[in-house]
Amino acid sequence: MIAHDGMFIDGSWRPAAGGGTIEVVNPADEQVIGTVPAGTAEDVDAAVRAARAALPGWAATPPARRAEYLTALRDALAARQEEIAATVVAELGSPIGFAQRVHAGLPVAVASSYAELALNHPFEEQIGTSTVLHEPVGVVGAITPWNYPLHQIVAKVAPAFAAGCTVVLKPAEDTPLTAQLFAECVAAAELPAGVFNLVTGLGHVAGQALAEHEGVDLVSFTGSTAVGRKIGAIAGGAVKRVALELGGKSANVILPGADLERAVRANVADVCRNAGQSCNALTRMLVPADRYDEAVAIAAEAVAEFVPGDPADPATRIGPVVNAAQRDRVRGYIRRGVEEGARLAAGGPEAPEGREKGYYVRPTVFADVTPSMTIAREEIFGPVLSVIRYEDEEEALRIANDSVYGLAGAVWAADEDTAVAFARRMETGQVDINGGRFNLLAPFGGYKQSGVGREMGRHGLAEYLQTKSLQF
Ligand code: NAP
Ligand code: MG
């Protein structure tokens, strides 16, 4: 039981202004594993003041020096990787192997990439007779979700630091222990007081106060489209910058001639990754009609290898989802799929065998899904794959683009040129070609209602910069 009762404000740990606490629950066994303070508007105000006070000094710190701090932060994250992984297992329910590789490992690489970008980014450019300065936007209010608890923090905080911005972070209420570990790493890296501040708390209290605070220049939010819409409205009203990384309903398009076995198996693994709780999950699989039955059979067979289990066991490939509400939501969508006429090829709405305790759901494959069904349109955020048939490429494209979202996608074809030609016509921010891998320097972000702005690499850095042109 961890009772870490501090919030990291202005370089030190201090108790919350109010006395409220939030319980942190292990989704695998429903036990309370810790508590953190429930911050209020008063705490947010103290944190924003600290960030504002630290801004001039940090913005004036040479980028090469900021790069050194980012390297120290990277080293601190690397030194505590095992502890971070164990914490993500305990509060999110991620399988330990995935937690080590991705939840703990990826942020180290991302921090490293921003140390390098701080060093190499041209913070001054010449355009004709003007010298254009790239200056920090100012104080950043970062609001993050629970699904990749550390990655989503680092994907905002590292570029903000590289740019010369100071930060107030409000992490998700389900995964605050990982955020506290991150703050300890910032402290270990000896960043100047106030450059980073952590306020744990509830979204509609601390999160909302942060988004509304007039001392915040940029709100960077990752989470649901519903909350993103609210934050966008608040930021628009105050004429402050906003970046929104929201949901998705990404299509995996398997074109005729593709390696069907490989494409389907990769899709099943992708949908089971992080128990389906990935904004870029490929939740719609589009298959040519003449290979449809074959594809469904492969998917049903492949998903059987994902047996829900204890996330602390290294053999487990899929753990529980994050909380009871999420479990009920996913099961509700599975029931809805059946009601609307889709056919269960694997899985279903019941608890997995022997997993009545814990927030487990059955990895599910739906066949005979039509594009108008709820399960083909809404983000489920659980291990549920909808297999949709198409007659020709034009229909495949229509179905792929028939979504309010546009975050990710994938195309499989017999050759790369065919896949790329199709990808060019997709309305989405990322497309994996024939099983292409995640690239942490590539811009990540959405078309349409999947968001505003980009994260990762130099495009992610640009979000935290504004230009000033000097004319000669
Ligand atoms: P959420 O409510 O959008 O949470 C994201 C973050 O925003 C959390 O830190 C949350 O705090 C905070 N927040 C909530 N209400 C707020 C408000 N009024 N003002 C400011 N901040 C606020 O997402 P969720 O409820 O955890 O998950 C719901 C659904 O969102 C999921 O089922 C999934 O479909 C989607 N989702 C998408 C992503 C993604 O990466 N695109 C990530 C997570 C969830 P609390 O933690 O206290 O609520
Ligand atoms: Mg919420």
Structure commentary:
The chain has 472 residues and is an alpha/beta fold. The chain folds into 2 domains: 2-246 and 450-471, Aldehyde Dehydrogenase, Chain A, domain 1, CATH 3.40.605.10; 251-440, 3-Layer(aba) Sandwich (Aldehyde Dehydrogenase, Chain A, domain 2). Helices cover 41% and strands 20% of the residues. The protein is built from 15 helices and 21 strands. It has helices at residues 41-60, 63-79, 81-92, 96-120, 149-163, 176-188, 203-212, 225-238, 260-272, 292-303, 324-339, 374-377, 393-401, 416-424, 457-462, and strands at 2-3, 7-9, 12-14, 21-26, 31-37, 124-127, 130-136, 139-143, 166-170, 196-198, 218-222, 241-245, 251-254, 284-288, 343-346, 364-367, 384-390, 409-412, 432-433, 451-452, 465-471. The strands form 5 sheets. The protein has a 7-stranded mixed β-sheet with strand order 15-16-17-14-13-18-19, with helices on both faces. Helix 1 crosses helix 7 (203-212), helix 2 (63-79) packs antiparallel against helix 5 and helix 9 (260-272) packs across helix 10 (292-303). The protein is globular. The mean pLDDT is 97. The structure holds NADP nicotinamide-adenine-dinucleotide phosphate and magnesium ion.
